[in-house]
Design a protein that fits this description.
alpha+beta, 4-stranded antiparallel sheet
Length: 75
């Protein structure tokens, strides 16, 4: 189970707005919590948060770097 505190959520949202990434496409991958992303997808650090992020099909996706599983999908 993944837990994101409201404080972490705020940090992620603010950081992603300040550090926009180009959106990537990952054919055949469903953007939902628990889906693992392939090793070919580069994950980007968010300061003071253990999770990483990437933008897929114009959605910011928060990922656990250890399992590469999606923790949260932002609109």
């Amino acid at each position: 189970m993944f837990v994101i505190t409201p404080e972490q959520d705020t940090v992620v949202r603010e950081y992603v707005q300040k550090q926009p990434l180009a959106s990537v496409k990952i054919p055949g991958v469903e953007l939902k919590v628990g889906t693992a992303l392939p090793d070919t997808v580069e994950l980007h650090e968010v300061p003071n948060v253990k999770y990483r992020y990437v933008v897929v099909d114009k959605h910011t996706v928060l990922v656990d770097p250890g399992t590469r599983k999606i923790v949260k999908v932002y609109d």
